[in-house]
Amino acid sequence: TNPVWEWTVAAVSNLNLAENVQIDADRLMLLLRELGAAGAERVVDRAVDEIAGRLLLIETSWASADFKTLGRTAQSLIAVADQIGMHLLAHVSCDVAGLAQSGDDSALAASVARLQRVGESSLLAVWNAQAFKV
Predict the structure, then answer these.
(1) Distance from C-alpha of 92 to C-alpha of 74, rounded to nearest angstrom
(2) Which residue, among 76, 107, 109, 110, has the nearest Cα to 94 in the 3D structure?
(3) Number of CB atoms found within 10 A of residue 93's CB
(4) For residue range 62-89, what is the model confidence (pLDDT) as tens digits?
(5) What are the angstrom distances between the C-alpha of 28 and each of 21, 36, 62?
(6) Gap between the Cα atoms of 6 and 16, Å rounded
(7) 3-state DSSP helix/strand/coil % of the chain, to nearest 5
(8) What DSSP letter does each residue of 81-128 carry, written as one string?
(9) Cβ proximity of 77 and 56 under 8 Å
(10) Could you tell me the pTM of the whole model?
(11) Secondary structure class of 57 (helix, strand, coil)
């Protein structure tokens, strides 16, 4: 056995795939100032529902190799994510939208997996946010 190979395999099998997600607090505060607490909460709740639904559609589109729907859905996710300060989610959605019709299945697979991780982490971050609690 080769000790370098064993170390490499051990390192790869222990990769941490967590994403460092931050919600733009300034964006949330702007919504709060413009719409009031109840209005901002409604916008965020609606956006969270939309994001969750679109992430599910992206997952099913990927599983069924429907790259046209996948790309269109990822593109539509960008504005919704940006609206509530999920800039990393918007960025990764843009990557997925661009790769959906590229034919680069490996890059698309990695980006879709990252989009799911970032999406899940972003939704958790918003749900845990205290900005709208009275």
Answers:
(1) 9
(2) 76
(3) 29
(4) 999 999 999 999 999 999 999 999 999 9
(5) 15, 11, 31
(6) 18
(7) 80, 0, 20
(8) HHHTT-HHHHHHHHHHHHHTTT--HHHHHHHHHHHHHHHHHHHHHHHH
(9) no
(10) 0.82
(11) helix
